[in-house]
Amino acid sequence: MKANDCASPTSICPEISNRVSFAVEGNIGVGKSTFLELIKSDETLTRLVDLHEEPVAQWQAVGGNPKHNMLNAFYSDSTRHAYTFQNYVFITRFLQHHNAAMNPKAPCCLLERSVFTDCCVFAKTVLEEGLMTDLEGAVYHSWFNPVLQTLPHLVPDAFVYLRASPQSCYRRLCIRSRTEEAAVGLDYLGKIHDKHEAWFVHGSMPATITPTGQAVSCGKLGEDLDGTSAVNVRVLDGKHSHAMLDGKTAIVVDCDAHLDNSGRALLVHELKVIFQQMGVFKC
């Protein structure tokens, strides 16, 4: 997937660039912040990648007012605030990703999570748990798809899935000790993990990268990952996530084994090799 293979600018927003965009996905506490710090610490990657971290600060202070902590409200009373939170999260992601597309600063845009995170994982989970009513779920989906169809540049060109067991995520969550996440338990992390696995593992096929930079499937749907590699390339099947993601590339990173100090150098090296093969940039 070379930069010039990306979707052309929309008629609505003709200024949008054709650079390559990646979304970093993964469970709560999987190590997204650590992963992004690795990107920042590498001279090649930091020069060629424009990073956009998740807008958590906006959720903790809606409109800049810390008294309006939407993140805390959701975790304190999920039934009351589930829809409001998911709605606000989408708006903040949408604005962040749209602004990133309108103001390119590097050949590659790296987003901490995407608008599909909620549709495929978090909103889906709260709906299944009964924290969002069927009516609220119907309202959510009634505007989600039309917005994406109108603004297709919100769809990332590829994904980086940071994969770790719920137990590992829970340990990291306890170390991070974010106040709003005190109520997040291992059971909830397990459900979020399962949604990510359905999206990026069970709903994908092993792939190889061709000399032209395209990721081409070379195995069966849901086939196990190569456990000997820090990084695996997959191709998504949109029927198991979202139609607009069909054929998108997913880079699955083993964070259980390679996000500690001893494995970080290998992880960064393998990522740079894959980015180079995809034609994102020359390392």
Average per-residue pLDDT, rounded, comes to: 87
**pLDDT below 50 for ≥5 consecutive residues: which ranges?**
1-17
Please compute the radius of gyration using only Cα atoms: 18 Å
Helical residue percent? 40-55%
The count of helical stretches stands at 11
Beta-strand segment tally? 8
Largest sheet: 8 strands, mixed
Describe this structure in words.
The longest helix is centred in the N-terminal third of the chain and has 25 residues, at 78-102. Strands 2-3-1-4-8-7-5-6 form an 8-stranded mixed β-sheet, with helices on both faces. Strand 5 and strand 6 (215-217) form a beta hairpin. The protein starts with 19 loop residues before the first strand and ends in a 6-residue tail after the last helix. Helix content is 45%, strand content 15%. By secondary structure, it is of the alpha/beta class. Mean pLDDT is 87; it is low at 1-17. It is globular and about 50 Å long. Helix 8 crosses helix 9 (186-200).
